[in-house]
Every structure is written in structure tokens, then in C-alpha cells.
Amino acid sequence: MRLLHTSDWHLGRAFHRVNMLDAQAAFIDHLVTTARERGVDAVVVSGDVYDRAVPPLAAVELYDDALHRLADLGVPTVLISGNHDSARRLGVGAELIGRAGIHLRTRADRCAEPVVLADDHGDVAFYGLPYLEPALVKDSFGVVRAGHEQVLGAAMDRVRADLAARPDGTRSVVLAHAFVIGGEPSDSERDISVGGVAAVPSGIFHGVDYVALGHLHGSQVITERIRYSGSPLPYSFSEAAHHKTMWLVDLDATGAVSAERLDCPVPRPLARIRGDLEELLADPELTAHEESWVEATLTDAVRPDDPMARLTGRFPHTLSLLFEPRRTETGPDAGYAERLRGRDDQEIAEDFVAHVRGAGPDDAERAVLRAAFDAVRAAEAGAGEVTR
Known about the structure:
Strand order of the largest sheet: 6-5-4-1-15-16
CATH superfamily of the domain at 2-263: Metallo-dependent phosphatases
Structural class: alpha/beta
Helix content: 25-40%
CATH architecture of the domain at 2-263: 4-Layer Sandwich
Shape: globular
Order of helices and strands: EEEHEHEHHEEEHHEEEEEEEEEHEHEHHH
Number of strands: 19
Strand content: 15-25%
Largest sheet: 6 strands, mixed
CATH topology of the domain at 2-263: Purple Acid Phosphatase, chain A, domain 2
CATH class of the domain at 2-263: Alpha Beta
Distance between the termini: 32 Å
């Protein structure tokens, strides 16, 4: 059976001030064309179809167009909700839409009810595990500790129990939206850490033939059987080194996996350039980036006049301008944005406590801060109806 694995469409999201709807529409064209020309038997979409719980109308229309075109091809499609989606909204009409071969899996309590497709070698069971917000699903899964590893492990136990009851030789595919250990994140993903822990071990998925992951935006191989497709388009300059692709996956009669990366159309390359303004304007080696989307970091000791206007004279698609002036012995401390770069919410809060009172939090205070952040994330997830 041949699968086309994609995820993290983030329909409705912009790239800095650039509306990405046309680029997202071009990707949908590419997806449908690929499914037709490469003889795909099923499309799997591993969450974050939309960028937010209540997407703009244009994004909903593009999603509707994508589903109609895939249904018209006769290619079954399995989709799960991600942490950016509203599971309840995305899942409206799931049973009815399923009659057209579009299978929405947005309910945690139905993770062990697969979509079963068949080829010449028998059945393939597709299990859709929507994003599982631990605080909201721990009771329904009967776990004591509300952590990603615990709830995802409980979901996979149910999957393996259902698979064990199926005929011998049934192959299996799991769709999941999670941060798996070994994956490389970017600045584009929303923080899903709970109790200070975001990642789950890859071994949690043992016993299935292929795991189609979503959440991280870089195309990655965790193991031969566990892969991230990555987002089809870039959504932050931290993705400048990403190769935007989908996975074309073949499952043979025994469940063995072979996979090929297929390029996705990207409207412009990304470039991160750094140096004094005059150097950037004159450097001949930067000619290749003149039509790229550009993030420029200026290192001038003194902020130059009209830097954005001057940069866009050479790099008309400059979208982000940062300042990291060269420091001298008497120069000021690092800027606020520079001090925060690469730090999560917990670390920022602990630094603030240390700044205010001169000493950082103790272990008990760290636990209180962590619990507060977890509660906020759970409240946000509940407001967006991430799962039920």
C-alpha cells in the first residue's frame, strides 16, 4: 500500500507580514497532483490542519476544496487534529464526511477505532491519535500522572490491544501529533510541555508498522518506521535550513517500509544574513539572496539610519530586521530579545524571580510556576476545544 504522509498545513497562517494563502493553495494543488500521478492509495495528515482553533473563512474554504478534490480522486484520506486545531470543530460531520472516504479522527476516546483499508495483501489499519492534552484526557485514559508520555502510552496500549484482535498479517499505521525524543524543533511550534516535559520516547510506538508524525516542522527520520513529514511551507526563519517535503511511503506485504521524500513547492527560499549594514549592502556573495525572504541581523555598534529602507533597496523581500550590536568593554548589556532567545516560559519566569528579589526560586517555587504554566496551557486547550 502506498501512502502520502503530510502534516502541519497551518491553513490561515501568515509568514511575518506575508499572506500565505496562495502558497498554501499551491501546496494543495501539488498534493492532489502527487496523489494522482504517483498512484497513492491513502493520504495521511498528522494534525495542525489549521493554524488556530477558529480559522479565517478563506482557510476553511481552502480546506473544503482540498477534501473535495481528494474525494473526487477516490483516494481515502485520514486526518487527525493537532494542538493548533479545535478538535470539535474539525470533527464536525465526521461520520457523514467519512462516507466520501475522508476520515477525521479528532476524538481521544476513539483512538483504537481504526480506518481499515485493503490492498492485494490484506488489511491495513490506520489509527488516528489526535493531539492529546494530558490535563484534559488523563481521566478518560485512567492515568494518574498527567504527562504526554502517560496519556500517549495509554492510547497506544489501546491501539495494540485492538490490533492484536485483528486477523494475522494485518498491517498498521498510526497517526500522532507529538514531540518525540530525537526530533529537532524550530521556533514555529507552539510549546506543548507539561510538567517541564514535552517529549515522549519513540519506543512508545512499538508494535506498529509505520508512525506518521506531525507537530515538528522539519522533515525528519526518528527511525525507519517513525517519521515526521514536517510542514509543507516555512512559518519562521528558524526553518531556513529545512527541506520542505512529504513522505511517499510504501508498505509491502510484510509491513516493511520504504520511503521517498517528495519536494513541496515553496514560493521563495529563506535567508538569514548577518553583519554591518554597509557590508550587507555591498557583499557580492549575498547576490543569491536578493529574491529570498530575508531576516537581517545588523551588528553595527551604532544603529544606522533607515536600515530597513536601505536593506529593501537590495533585498526587496526583507521581512525581519534584528539588531545585535557589537559590544565593547563599556557597551550596554545584551538586549532583552537577545537575553530571551532560546529560553522557554519556565526559564523566563525563573529569571524574572531572580531579577526581582536577587535570588532564583527554590524547588517548591519552581513546581508552583510549572503548575501555573501547565494550567494556562490546559485552559487554552479547553477554550479551543482541543479534544473531548
